[in-house]
Design a protein that fits this description.
about 45% helix
């Protein structure tokens, strides 16, 4: 990736019903919403899209950091830019997984 290219990533929610492709600045480029998500209403859907978009932006930042590292940018500069490492992103995901409530039922509607 050259310096003028934008880092992007595609991330989906756990059930795979919402997928967002976003830049490292959090700008959504594409959003896919499965019909099943519509049953939760606009407020919940918007919150879910925002959450997935935030995760896609974080993944894109990790990709940007890896690319700049390959180009020789020092780690101190990348830290100052707020670009996380893969391990930092994984640690955040682990904390989020721990904080997320377990489902009340494993049964799914057919």
């Amino acid at each position: 990736m050259s310096a003028d290219e934008v880092a992007v990533a595609t991330v989906g929610n756990r059930p795979g019903t919402i997928t967002v492709r976003a830049t490292d600045q959090g700008l959504p480029l594409a959003i896919h919403i499965d019909r099943r998500e519509l049953r939760y209403g606009g407020t919940q859907l918007a919150a879910s899209i925002l959450e997935v978009c935030t995760r896609a932006a974080a993944e894109a930042k990790v990709r940007r950091r890896a690319d700049l590292t390959e180009q020789g940018v020092p780690a101190e500069v990348l830290d100052a830019l707020g670009l996380p490492t893969r391990n930092e992103l994984a640690a955040v995901a682990d904390v989020e997984d721990e904080e997320e409530a377990a489902p009340t039922s494993w049964m799914r509607q057919l």
